[in-house]
Amino acid sequence: MKAYVYGPDGATISDVAQPKPKGTQVLVRVRACALNRADTGMRKGHAHGAAGGVGTVLGMEWAGEVAELGPDAKGVKVGDRIMGSGGAAFAEYTLADHGRLFHAPSNMNFEEAATLPVALATMHNAVVTVGGVQAGQTVLIQGASSGVGLMAMQIARLKGAKLVIGSSTDATRRGRLKEYGADLAVDSSDPKWVDDVLKATNGEGVDLIVDQVSGKVANQNLAAAKVKGRIVNVGRLGGTHADFNFDLHAARRIDYVGVTFRTRTIEEVREIFAEVRKDIWSAVEARKLQLPIDKVFAFDDIDKAFEHMEANKHLGKIVVTV
């Protein structure tokens, strides 16, 4: 089968053996896959958790059809239209644990379905399960113009947040955040953004910050959070190391929690997917939670898809059809 594989000379489309499902695994005939920021690093040979390196089939998000079931797989049958996340997505066939997938709604095509699994699982966990958002609260999403950021704002709005603020350093994308749930859009590269947040919250700060940037905005987040507020750190686009004002953190009594899929067990991931199905799946089926597709590429043009992502001018998801 064809797959996009990282090799000694970089990532290329190669012929590899079709995998065979074992245990609770499902073999998926991939029809579309979506790019994520982590894929750009793995394409350059960087590890993502335990995954990466020479011989790795890249990709982590897909939609397609069940082709074969492992002996212990449950909840799906051959022919079902599904979408999910996991390694080796950029291929004609991939394997997925039966608890790490969703049934694709009948009102979505494969390209649309492929945009959702990572964003839904990541941001339902960050905003709802860990962030504990409640109706009437105020929320700031750092890095809001990314696919997962756009989903975070929509989930916050769905759960009844009274004020949703999104940040983006790109003026064009910042201007579109209101289409996806933001009441206010701020530029996190402008030091005045904290003042804008405090003004919008009558000087109190926000109840919840979901931070995909970290780095240089870490102390600004502390200043923008309400006393006894919560900061959920889901990314490091602004760098992995930075100065941290421990006194301000303590003074504002902020809960600061880090989350990532890289160190979660399969049991923990299954629970996250189950919570999405239980809590917000009806909104997915009603298309109240969806992401824009910026551009679709054919599988043979997957390098061009990555070039488009690395140009960093897109809003929404970049999709590759297989």
From TrEMBL:
Domain Enoyl reductase (ER), first and last residues per copy: 7-320
Keyword NADP: yes
Alphabetically ordered keywords of this record: NADP
InterPro entries: ADH-like_C (IPR013149), ADH-like_N (IPR013154), ER (IPR020843), GroES-like_sf (IPR011032), NAD(P)-bd_dom_sf (IPR036291), Zinc-ADH_QOR/CCCR (IPR051603)
Pfam short name (any one): ADH_N
Protein name: Quinone oxidoreductase
Superkingdom to which the source organism belongs: Bacteria
PANTHER family to which the protein is assigned, alphabetical: QUINONE OXIDOREDUCTASE
